[in-house]
Specification:
Blueprint (H helix, E strand, L loop, with lengths): L1 E2 L2 E4 L8 E3 L2 E3 L3 E5 L5 H10 L4 E7 L2 E8 L2 E6 L9 H8 L5 H14 L3 H7 L5 H19 L6 E6 L14 H21 L5 E5 L20 H9 L6 H8 L3 H14 L2 E6 L1 H38 L8 H33 L6 H6 L6
Antiparallel strand pairs: 1-2, 2-5, 3-4, 5-9, 6-7, 6-9, 7-8, 10-11
Helix pairs in contact: 2-5, 3-4, 6-9, 7-9, 10-11
Length: 370
């Protein structure tokens, strides 16, 4: 049967092949547009029918694969990513659980000895089992949560055997996972109002205060294990993004707990990250140097134009009045050049934490012309 842009291909009797048009399909095959058949339709269908295989979703160049085993979600894959540095490697490195060098060593062992990369990480003691399980589970949630940000795309499901380590993966019921993710999608706009950028830095209102001090207060029931982890990470230096990466709690739950800590009055925002703030100051200073120079030059040119228009008649070359104006302009240009060099020195100082020893240093950074 055919529904809109969604096609269903059914396996033939007694395990034979079904023929749809000119294509031969060995297994059940489902394909279509995400605009016509959304995730809230696909996930329950695959779960209820206890399908085993790979659900692939694509938007432009992005491809995400969800692995199903007997209707349960058992992992994700990203075929468009670099095989030598997949999302798992990036996530572990960002979270501080693994160095790039150790990942390369484990990956090499995985290729040479033909066992899973997860086993290679654990066999060498690079990552403990509990951390690996948490990271893989979180990646599944974040991958599916990210799909709801897509504006369109296509999908296809192929029944095939999927491989995963049951010691590291806890199968997730798609219906319950979907409910969790939909709750996150629903609540996220409210959280985004409180944390508009992940470059925000947070600090403790009272560094001597601990969550034990909430005992006996109206906020005691809000205390949870995730909040404990996050509160310890807040040091007035880390950004929200760094806290998300290090905590392995997830983007949504991290932000929700940080907002709870703000509402209780234990932490407060410190604007944006110092590095980003400095970068903006440098960029603004560069714009001001160029804008100020152009504005002053424009005013001087306009002034000279009116002066020449009022004093010059049929005389050539310049009369005495025009010559005086020309000399004034030259003097102004020299002053302007000094202002530009002075501003350029200040921008150089912002970037390098020192003043330039010679003009060539400012020329090399594009602050002044040769």
């Amino acid at each position: 049967m055919l529904w809109s842009n969604t096609a269903w291909f059914i396996r033939g009797p007694k395990g034979g092949e079904a023929i749809f048009g000119r294509r031969k399909i060995k297994e059940i095959y489902l394909t279509g547009s995400l605009k016509d058949f959304g995730l809230t339709d696909i996930f329950p269908l695959l779960g209820q029918q206890q399908k085993t295989g790979v659900l692939s979703l694509q938007e432009d160049s992005k491809i995400v694969q969800i692995l199903f085993d007997k209707g349960m979600i058992v992992g994700t894959a990203f075929p468009a990513e670099n095989e030598e540095e997949p999302p798992l490697a990036k996530r572990l490195i960002r979270g501080g659980l693994l160095s790039p060098e150790k990942w390369k060593k484990a990956y090499q062992q995985h290729k040479e000895e033909l066992f899973s990369i997860e086993q290679a990480l654990m066999n060498n003691g690079m990552v403990i089992k509990e951390d690996l399980v948490a990271a893989m589970r979180l990646m599944t949630y974040e991958a599916i949560y990210g799909l709801f940000k897509w504006k369109g795309g296509t999908f296809w499901f192929e029944t095939k055997k999927v491989f995963y380590d049951p010691e590291l993966v806890e199968p997730l019921a798609p219906e319950y996972l979907l409910l969790d993710v939909l709750r996150m999608v629903d609540e996220w706009p409210l959280l985004a109002e409180r944390i508009p950028t992940f470059e925000m830095v947070l600090e403790k209102v009272n560094p001597l205060f601990t969550l034990d001090d909430l005992t006996g207060t109206p906020h005691e029931k809000q205390r949870n294990f995730q909040m404990e982890i996050l509160y310890e990470m807040i040091d007035g230096q880390r950004t929200v993004q760094q806290i998300i990466d290090l905590s392995f709690i997830g983007e949504f739950d991290t932000c929700k707990n940080l907002i709870s800590l703000m509402d209780i009055g234990l932490i407060k925002p410190l604007s944006i990250a110092p590095a980003e703030e400095k970068g903006r100051r440098i960029q603004l200073s560069r714009h001001l140097v160029n804008f100020g120079a152009c504005l002053l030059a424009g005013v001087l040119a306009l002034s000279l134009f009116f002066q020449l228009a009022g004093t010059r008649r049929m005389h050539f070359p310049l009369n005495a009045q025009e010559l005086k104006g020309w000399l004034t302009l030259q003097d102004s240009v020299q002053k302007l050049e000094k202002i530009k060099i002075g501003n350029a020195r200040e921008v150089f100082f912002l970037e390098e934490n020192r003043y330039p020893e010679k003009p060539a240093e400012m020329v090399s950074k594009g602050l002044i012309a040769r």
